[in-house]
Structures are given as C-alpha cells and as structure tokens.
Amino acid sequence: FAMRVPNTQGLAAGASATFYVLGGLDCTLDDGTHVGEGAWQSIGTGTVSADGMTIDAPTIPCMTWLAYGPT
Question: Which residues contact 19 (CB under 8 A, 6 or more apart)?
C-alpha cells in the first residue's frame, strides 16, 4: 500500500530516504522474495516533499515495523 510519513528526521526538501520493513510470517516483496521473520529489508526510497513536512514512501509490502533514514 502507499503511505506518506512525517519527516521527523528533518531531512531537506527533495532529499531521498531509504525505507526498511521488518519481515514477518507473511511478508513478501513485489518480486516474490519472502522477508524472514525478524529480518530488516530495504524496500526502496522515498522523497521528502517540497515543504519538507512529509516523505512519500515506496509501496509497503506487509504490515509490520517500518523504518527510514537518509540515503
């Protein structure tokens, strides 16, 4: 699913952020790769909005923990 998150890290407008998801029992990437339970997996990058307030995340493959950081 698509998601927009607050830019709590204060990244600059237009900056890229790498997103990670924590694997689970039924966590599968778009290419069919299973993300094992307890494993962090990079799922792509998002871009900070022009006003610097939010980041558009890549498609989230499963509903578990989500993290991001500067690219």
Answer: 42, 43, 44, 45, 46, 57, 58, 60, 66, 67, 68
Q: Three-state SS for 57?
A: strand
Q: Determine the pLDDT at residue 36.
A: 92
DSSP annotation of 13 reads: T
Cβ atoms 38, 27 nearer than 8 A? no
Nearest residue to 69 via CA among 2, 6, 9: 9
Enter the tokens of residue 54: 């939010």
Number of H helices and E strands in the chain, helices first, is 0, 5
**pTM for this model (two decimals):** 0.84
